[in-house]
Amino acid sequence: MINLALLKRLRDFLSNKFGVFIDDEKLESIYKRKFLSIMNEFGYTDFNSFYKDIIFQRNSRLLERVIDVITVNETYFFREAYQFDTLVNYIIPELDKIRPKTESINILSAPCSTGEEVYSIAIYLMEEGNFIKKRDFLLLGIDIDKQAIEKAKVGLYSERSVHKLPKEIIDKYFIKKGNLYQIRDILRNAVNFKVVNVLDKYEMKRLGKFDVIFSRNMLIYFDEHNRKEAINNFYNILKTNGYLFLGHAEKVPDDFKLFKREKIGEAFVYRKV
Ligand SMILES: C[S@@+](CC[C@H](N)C(=O)[O-])C[C@H]1O[C@@H](n2cnc3c(N)ncnc32)[C@H](O)[C@@H]1O
């Protein structure tokens, strides 16, 4: 039996620490069952010790499993591709003019889930071709979900992940393995990955400074407080005149005046002024 008050306390802990917000209805209809199944998997018979081991972070494998279950990893190559068009056709040319040629242009995908977003950015840059000849680019994907990051590094994708890709792009950047698609080394070598919690400002600062941050389809799962924390962390690691891209259902709150919202090409972006 799961005590409802304790279940809610576990939910609040996970929400404060990792940002993922689960409402009461979903908690009882979906997540209760998911937690029971993890308890089973790890051999817990009472919810109290399961709860304590999570909140005191006594078992890192258990915590990883819980994060895996509460996060939504849905993603695919060339998702909302008009934003990548804006990146390579307007933003990179502008940054190329204002940044010293000796500096790399640094792009962060936070969260990157299983890697499709940041590999898509790499493909766009390679297809454009001019700027990567002129200067270095550093592409980094981060996510809190260790399993998703492991998958991103392996780079083996299903039909569903590549369904938006033109055939010539698939042929150029992937090797077909049965009914799966393995990224070629040219793509793998262009990107780095790391397990990071966007709400941890120290971990975030250690990543360095970025010219562009993509943060799509994560903030919608956060409550207002954590949404602001995450945006603040993005702001702190963006260079001046750097850009933040959000998912189409997400926005920087109006009272956050440090970003200027601009329409560039087909996309709305936030510039750090
Ligand atoms: C729906 S995916 C978005 C992937 C990609 N940006 C896209 O739009 O296709 C959401 C991701 O957010 C990650 N996530 C949730 N909370 C996080 C946190 N606090 N720090 C880092 N990543 C987090 C999840 O693990 C999940 O992989």
Summary of the model, kept short:
This protein has 273 residues and is α/β, with parallel strands linked by helices. The chain has 13 helices and 10 strands. Bound molecules: S-adenosylmethionine.
Cα-to-Cα separation, first versus last residue: 53 Å
- Helix proportion range: 40-55%
* Strand residue percentage: 15-25%
Question: How does the helix and strand content classify structurally?
Answer: alpha/beta
**Succession of helices and strands:** HHHHHEHHEHEHHEEHEHEHEEE
List each distinct ligand once: S-adenosylmethionine
- Bulk shape: globular
Q: For the residues shown, what is the average pLDDT?
A: 94
Can you say what the CATH homologous superfamily of the largest domain is? Answer: Vaccinia Virus protein VP39
H/I helix tally: 13
Description:
It is a single chain. By secondary structure, the protein is α/β, with parallel strands linked by helices. The protein has two domains: 4-70, no CATH class; 82-272, 3-Layer(aba) Sandwich (Rossmann fold), CATH 3.40.50.150. Helix content is 48%, strand content 20%. It has helices spanning 4-18, 24-41, 47-55, 60-70, 82-98, 116-128, 130-134, 146-154, 159-162, 167-173, 185-188, 201-205, 224-237; strands spanning 105-109, 137-143, 156-157, 174-177, 180-183, 191-195, 210-215, 238-246, 259-264, 267-272. The strands form two sheets. The protein has a seven-stranded mixed sheet. Helix 2 runs antiparallel to helix 4. The longest helix has 18 residues, at 24-41. It is globular, with a radius of gyration of 20 Å. It binds S-adenosylmethionine. Residues 18-20, 71-75, 79, 111, 113, 117, 143-145, 148, 197-199, 216-218, 247 line the site of S-adenosylmethionine.
